Amino acid sequence: MDSSRTDRTASTRAQRAAEATEDFAADRLPPDERRSTLSITLVRMGFTVSATDLLYGMSLGLFFPFWTGVLIAVGSSLVVSVVSILCGLIGQRERITTALGLQAAFGRGGSRLPSLVIALLSAGFVGYSTGITAGVLPGGKDPWLGLVYCVVLSALYTALSIVGFGKGLTWVGRISVPLMLVTVVIAVIAAVDHAGGIGEIVGAEPARAGEATALALFALGVNKWMTGATVTPDITRFGKSRSTVYTTTIAEFMVGNFGFNMLGILLGLGVREADMGEAFGIVGVGALATFAIFVQGFPHEVNNMYAASLAGRTAIDLPRIAVNVIAGVLACGLAYYGLTAGILDAFLTYLGYLGYAIPLIPGILVADYFLLRRGRYDLSEAALAAVNWRAVSAYFAGLGINLILGFGFDDKLWHTLPLTGALLYLLFSLPQWRAAQQARVPAQLPVTEGAR
C-alpha cells in the first residue's frame, strides 16, 4: 500500500514538473504573459552574441580582404533579417510558437517532419557551439577533460532551458550578453594593436586567400541563421506589438550577428589563426577570451536548446522537459565530435548541410500564412488538417531540387534561400491561392437606378 502510494506521489510530481515547464508550447500565449521589448531584445541577442558568429567572422577574415568580408557579413545578415521578420510577425500576431505555426501549415501529423528537422538542427547548433566553448577552456584539447567539459556544459544548458523564457532565457540574456560584448571588444582591441593598427588590418592579405569563394561564404552566412530566423516566433510571441518584431530583429541580426561577424573579421585578419583559443592567446588575452566564450555559451546554447525543445515536443509527442533532456544528450555528443574533429572545418561543413533542409520550412510557413490564410490562423481541432499534403509535397520536392542544385550543379546560393519552398507551395496550392485572392476583393454592389 505504501509502495503504491509512493509510486502515485512520484508520478504526480513528475506530471506537475512536466506541466510547469511546458511554457505554453501547445497553446496561444495568454496576453498577460507578454514581455517588454528590452527583455525580448536581450534574449534574441543571446542567440547571435555568440562564439559561432565570432568563428564565422574569423573565417571571413582568413579567406577574404576586409571590405569583401564586411559585404558578405552585411548581405547575409540582411537576408536572414527579412526571413526573421516575416516569421516573427506570425508569432507576435498569433501568440504561438513556430511548432504551432507548422501545425497550421503542414497539418497536425504533417508538422512532425519540419518540427523534427528544426529540433535536430537546433540541437546540432548547441553541440558545435558547446564544442567551441569546451575548446577554449583550460585543457579543453585533452580528450578526457574535453569530454568532461562537454558533459557539464550540456547539462547546465539543458537545465536552464527547461526553466523557460521568464525565469531562464530572460535572466541569462540580461547577465551574459553585456558581459560577452565587453570582453570580446577588449579582445578585438588587443588584436588590432597586435596587428599594428586598424589600417594594417584593413589592408591585410588574408592568410587563406583563394581557398573559398565569396558566394559560398555568403551562403554559409545565410545558412548559419536560417534556423534561428525560422524559430523567431518562439520568442516574438511574447511581444506586445509588431514594432517589437522589427526592433528585436535589428538588434539580433544587424547588431548582434553582423557586429560579431565584424569583430571576427578583425580577429581573423589581425591574428591569422583559425583556432579561436590560440588566436586569443597570441594577442595576450587568453584568460579574458576564455571567460568571454564561456559566458556567451549560456544565452546562445540555452536559446537554441529552448527552440529544439519546442519543436521536438511537436515532432515526437513528449513533454518539453523530456525533449530537452534528449536534445542535451545529442548536443553533448556533437560537441565532443566537433572538439575532436577540428571545430572550424566541422562547423563550416555542418552549416553547408543546413542549406538543403531548413530554408524550405520558412518559405512554406510564410507563403501559407500571408498568402493563403490572409494573415489569420484558426487553430481549432476541427480546422487543422491531419496532413496538408500540399505542404509536405512542396517540402520533399524542394529538398530534391535543392540536392540536385547543390550536388549536381554546384549551386552555392539558390538552395539556401526560402524561395523554392514558397514557390512550390504556391504552385501546389493554386486553387486555394486564387480563392484567397478573390476573398481579398470586396464584392461589387449592383448599381441601382436611383444611384445613377
UniProtKB/TrEMBL annotation:
Residues 1-26 are annotated as: Disordered. Residues 1-10 have a biased composition (Basic and acidic residues). Keywords: Membrane, Transmembrane, Transmembrane helix. It is found in: Membrane. Pfam families: Transp_cyt_pur. The chain crosses the membrane at residues 42-64, 70-92, 113-137, 143-163, 175-192, 212-232, 244-267, 279-300, 321-344, 350-371, 383-407, 413-430. The keyword Disulfide bond does not apply. Gene3D superfamilies: Hydantoin permease (1.10.4160.10). Its main location: membrane. It is a multi-pass membrane protein. InterPro entries: CodB, Pur-cyt_permease. PANTHER family: CYTOSINE PERMEASE (PTHR30569:SF0), CYTOSINE TRANSPORTER CODB (PTHR30569). Belongs to the purine-cytosine permease (2.A.39) family. This is Cytosine permease. It comes from Streptomyces polyasparticus.
